[in-house]
Structure formats: C-alpha cells, structure tokens
Amino acid sequence: MIARGADGQRVARLHIIEQFDGAATRIGIAQHVGAGYLHRINHGAQTATLFDAVSNYWWLGGTYLPVPQIALDAQFGHISVNSSSAGASVIAARAAYLLSKRSSVYVTVGHMFNERNATFTVDGGVLPPASTPLPGVDQTGVMVGVRHQF
C-alpha cells in the first residue's frame, strides 16, 4: 500500500501477519508471527545535515503463550536511512500476565543498536534532547506497566 502520511510524505507499507492454529500449539512454537516493511520518502531538511531522507524499516516478531495467562513476545527490526551510516537495529521482548480478557500487567525490555551516525531512541523518540543518545551510542530501556482495554 502506498499512501500519504499526515505530514504529506509518501509512505509504502506492507504488513504480513500469520496466525498458527492448534498444530503450532501442540509442537510448542509461536502462536502468532508478524512481519512487515515500511518505506518512507521524506522531502526537505530532516536534520541539520540530512536532506531528502529515504528510509526502509523491516521487522519480524512473534508471540508464544506457554499457558493461557502468560504471553511472551519478541521482535527484531532494522532501519536504514539512505546509504548513510545512520541505520539501527532494535530487539525487544515482553512478558505479560493476563489478569482478565481486558487487563494485564507486563514488563518490556528493548535495546537499540545504533550505527555510527544514528541517534535512534529505544522509546520511539520524545522531543530531543530528553532521551536522544549521542551518535552511534546504543540505548537500552525497560518499561513496566498495567494495561486495560476499554
């Protein structure tokens, strides 16, 4: 799918989600697997030194439920920007205890592996410089919380 984002930039998205049924459960592999690809073309100045950025982001993840009340998730992703050394890889893992159909408690840990000039944040980025690492510096984050769906 190719569309325009809220900022007017062209975005191409491809999401692939596969759900395994009882056969996967019997042999103990992931019950949900997801993968995707995001291609963005951003015109204009992105930073003081980066203009007309083209980025490619792909990811692969899965969920495993060892028992009905516990969900274990893991995901790996990689982003590259133009042909520069401003790319990064991220790995994240989450464990959730399902209190009910709509509530859970969870802990998530993630690590961002920044390439030489990259300053990607593990939390998705808040306004700089609050959590922005120095160029090429990796970042680790942990989040603990309660989730309730209304």
Structural descriptors:
150 residues, mainly beta, Porin
Description:
This protein is mainly β and 150 residues long. The model is unreliable at 17-27 (pLDDT under 50). The protein has one domain: Porin (Beta Barrel). The chain has one helix at residues 22-27, and strands spanning 2-4, 10-19, 32-45, 51-67, 70-81, 88-98, 103-114, 139-148. It starts with a strand and ends with a strand.
Q: State the order of secondary-structure elements, H for helix, E for strand.
A: EEHEEEEEE
Which oligomeric form is depicted?
Answer: single chain
Identify the CATH architecture: Beta Barrel
Alpha-beta content class: mainly beta
Unreliable spans: 17-27
Number of helices: 1
Counting DSSP E segments of at least 2 residues, the number of strands comes to 8
Shape: elongated
Terminal CA distance = 30 Å
Helix content range of the residues, please? Answer: under 10%
Radius of gyration: 18 Å
Taking strands numbered 1, 2, ... along the chain, how are they ordered across the largest sheet? 1-2-3-4-5-6-7-8
Into how many domains do the coordinates divide?
Answer: 1
CATH fold field value: Porin
The description of the largest β-sheet is: 8 strands, antiparallel
At the first level of CATH, the class is: Mainly Beta
Give the overall average pLDDT.
Answer: 79
> Beta-strand percentage?
over 45%
Protein name: Porin
Organism: Paraburkholderia terrae
InterPro entries: Porin_dom_sf
